[in-house]
Structure formats: structure tokens, C-alpha cells
Amino acid sequence: MHIDTTITPKDLLSDLERFWKVSGRKINDLNKNYDPAKGSPVFTVEGQYTTRGWTEWTQGFQYGGEILQFDATGDTAFLEMGKKNTVGKMAPHVSHFGVHDHGFNNVSTYGNLLRLMNEGRIPENEWERNFYEMALKASGSVQARRWTDLPNDGGYIYSFNGPHSLFADTIRSLRALAVAHQLGHSYMGEGDKEISLLKRIIQHAKTTADYAVYYGEGRDYYDVWGRTAHESIFNLNDGNYRCPNSQQGFSPFTTWTRGLSWIMVGAPEQLEFLKTIDDAELEPLGGRETIEAFLLKMAKASCDFFIENSAADGIPYWDTGALNTHKLGEDVYERESEPFNDAEPVDSSAAAIGAQGLLRLGRYLNDEKYTQAGLTVMKTLLNDKYLSLDESHQGLILHSVYHRPNGWDHIPEGQTVPCGESSMWGDYHAREAALYIQRLAKDEPYYKFYL
Asked: Which helix (H) or strand (E) holds 211?
């Protein structure tokens, strides 16, 4: 990536104003024309949102996007839309024991609404507050229940793949446990055993840092600073780590960039959250210094890898070592991204997620390199190349990739790789990053998930 060292959040305000206008049109189109009986919208095909029955992880992004639209613009029609859909349709996600996605679905909806009430953006209402808090407490416990113990007091929230499987994605679902913990909640197990949600946050984050991220320390032949594995596999008979794997990337030994981006944003968010926790709470879990050290190492490594392995304008290709990447040329990261190439697709959703991670890490460290990198990525996503200006297209950010190995992504006629389509997670995280920057530019309250 060629980092623009001059751009500031205020420089993007005119682009953000256009972005939110386009975003509002897309939200209204989806509400008017998408049939919810088909299931949650996941990604677009020929510009129209479609579903894909694999795991229910995107509906919170749809309704959470409505809430973010109100947050950014003050248009109460979107607030009412987001409230109505959260109350009417999100309850199954609170009690969904079959997914590792509670931080996606429920913090994006109930969590955003509670945050707005805490900020005074929506009126205080005791019963409404209790409703949001109860949903978030339950969501945190349901997510924490999806647990595999490891030797030496370790463990992780396992993926929908099964108890042997840790996904890189799940570090961002720790948000559900964090909010529930801040609300004074504990997960109650067999025999009325009280299980600390904070402990499970630290345990999962440590396992992710130890096994999903590489640091150039010789773990395998392909060990370089910041490379990530989408999935980490454990032997349930003895709890030993066995190997890296990848569900949606090209291989276990290459970096699927959306998995990388989840870690990029999840680790800095947890560092921010830990500032709200007393040292006394962290002491029996390893102590603040130790915990923050492994989180910071993970955050810096993943963000550095993204910077090093993205196109000049800050957009990554979907996997840094995919089969045909060599066809893009040795200077692929010295050129601007090429969504319509004939070798391997870019993934704008990884860019939208990763941009926020860069920005948060930059603020946490007061390091301009990461801050400017995040702004560089967002500058690109806000331009005509990636912002979906076609009013007949329901997506907001173009050139997103869902599941390249399974061939789920639409390849337009005349093209050889997926391009021109959007995803619900890409659109939502573009809105999150846009709101983050807008609040910085206008000196508004810092955008955070925790209380």
C-alpha cells in the first residue's frame, strides 16, 4: 500500500456526505424490494441481494446498518426502521447456539441502540434500556457457552465447524461477551458454576494470538510477520494444536484477507475495551501488561501484513497466495487495485473491515502510520471505483467476495473472476468505518462498541 500521509478525517467529509446519501437509498431499496421470506440477505447477484443458506450471520448487519444510518445523518426514519426490525426479527439470533457470530448480529443491533441511548442520541426509556441489556446479556452467555477447553487453563469459542475449530473471525464476536460483562453478567454453568465472561474473552484472544497469527518466529516454513490462518484445528482428545486450515481462503498456508481483517479490528477493539477494566480484574487472568502485550503484538502484526500485502490504493486481493496471484505480476502491490482483472478478485469487504482496525490501532498507539493507512483505504472505498452509484444496484460497496473456493460469487458475463457485487458485511463495515471517521472529523464522541 502507498500510504497517503497528508489526508485527514476532515478531508473526507464531502465524500462521506455523498456516501451516506447513497447508503440511505440502498437501505430503502432493500427494505422495499427484498423478500425476507427468502432468509437473510447475504450478497448481491447482478446487483440484487440474495441469500445463501450456510450460517445466519448477516441479518444483524442489515438492521445494524439502518441504525448506523440514523447515527450518521440524524434521519429518524432509519432509527425507527432499525428499532422495528431489531425488536421484530433479531430474537432468534440472541438464542442461536449454533453460530460463533453473536458479536456480529447482536452488538450491531441491540448494542448500537444501547450505545445511542447511553450517548443521549435517543431518549432514555427504562423498559427499552432493560430490553436491550437483557438481549446483550443473553447473547454474551450463549456465545460463551460455545466453548472448548484447552490444557493450561486455555480455551476458545469454537466455530460452526465444530469443537475442534477456531476461526479468526470470532475475535470480533468477543464484543458480545465484553458488553455482557460490563453489564455485570456472568455465564452460569452446571451446578450453578459462575463462569467469568472476561476470562473467556482473554482465553479466546490468547488462543487466537498464539495459533491464528504468525510472527516470523519459525512456526513453519511459511511463517512471516502478520500472516494469519483462517482456521486453527485442535485435537479434542488431548487439546493439542494440530494444524492451520482455511474454510474460505485458498490454503492453510496463505492469508485469506478477510480473516486477516477480522483480527486487525478485533484486537485493537479489545485493547480499547480493556482500558475500562480495573487492574484487579485482570490480575488473576495474567495481568494487564501480559494481556495487552499479546493483543498489541497480534494487532500490529496483522495490520503490518495488510499494509505490506495490499494494492497501492489500500485494497487487498482476496487471498495473498491464491493460485493465479502470480499472473497479476510482481508489482501487484505497487499498482492500484484492479477489480476487473483476469486472475484473482479483490475483496473490498476485507478493506472495509481492515480500515477500521488500522484506524483504531493508530489511535491506540498514537501512530500516524496506521491512522494514515486506514484513511487511505477509506478514501479509495469512497470513490467511484468502489462506491455503488448505480441506483438499480442494491449493494453499497462494490467488488466484495464471499466464498471463492465454493464458487458462490457471481462472475459477470465477459469477466473471469467475481467483481461488481456487494456483501452485507462489506456494506455494514464500510458504514462503521465511515461513521468512525465522521465522528473524528466533527469532534463527536468516539465510536466504540463497549459501554
From this structure: helix 197-211
